[in-house]
Write a structure and sequence with these properties.
Layout (H helix, E strand, L loop, with lengths): L2 H21 L5 H22 L4 H60 L4 H28 L1 H23 L1 H10 L6 H39 L5 H10 L6 H18 L4 H27 L7 H15 L1 H26 L2 H4 L2 H5 L1
Helix pairs in contact: 2-3, 2-5, 3-4, 3-5, 7-8, 7-10, 7-12, 8-9, 9-10, 11-12
Length: 359
Amino acid sequence: MSTTRKVWTWTIALIVFLLLLYVLNDVLLPFVAGLVVAYLLDPLADRLEAMGTSRTWATALLTVGFLLVVLGGVVLLVPVIESQASALAQAFPQAIDSIWSSAKPLIEGLRERFDIAGDEELQQALTSNAGSAAGWAKNILGGLLTGGMAIVNIVSLLFITPVVSFYLVRDWDSMIETVDGWLPRDHRDTIRQLLGEIDSSIAGFLRGQVSVCVILGLFYGIGLAVIGLSGGLLVGLLAGLLSFIPYVGSITGFVASMGLAAVQFGPTNFLMLGLTAGIFFVGQAVEGNFLTPKLVGDRIGLHPVWVIFALLAGGALFGFLGVMLAVPVAAAIGVLVRFGLRQYLASPLYKGHPLDKAD
């Protein structure tokens, strides 16, 4: 088979795969989630198997343990998060009044200078818009929670994902061996090397970044709750969850927490504002100097801008499924791009042909 024909064959195969992914993205979520769980649990299954436990029993123990941890976290956190969200919702009108009182002198000066609407009209507009925004958010959340496809996805995640992850963990080694047997003989060593680099990059993100997000979420949430910030636990957990997007989690959590602290404690209570800011500064220092180097390291090899772009592009194309696949795909593309660059730098296209130099 000529090189051109090989390129066309693999290109057509990639296009077909992407089309299938786009058409089936509504039903693939539990299977992709099961694949992610299996990928995370496989090293633990290998260790248990090396200690003498059968692969089936090791898989069963890990799957049940993972489910218990997830369900326990849900049982413990959902009531707390619900109470925090309810407290934030009840405090919302007070926050609007407090912000209005703080901004009123500035608005009054701007009104006199630029001849804009009076105080009552502005406050009425703010109240109306705030009510509209709250109603819009409520409708969106209600639609997400009560929509038919959302219910199907939740049910499928609860019942299908554990089954998928169990079978994938149990048969992981045999599947890898089978796929290895399908590799083209002429390029098997090169493909193995690339797959190894991709695996190292993905593992560096998933197995490391998940730990970083959990630790940061607990640190932010507990720290904000200890200083008495209303809704601090919820904001901290969300900041930790968003930390898998570079800089987004810390910046979002910092801005939201400082805003809540200014409303709750007053904009001139510099002690509480400093404590709130200090929690995020300490969290970022610990993440940058200890957590990320130790748990993630340099294995991921992805620039933060590339990660952000991949997440946004994946979400725009395939929704939540695209977000889950964004980083692994970005890691694979990064490895392939670096391989192609190495090939280019070692080729005559870059170095030039010796005969051309002689001429």
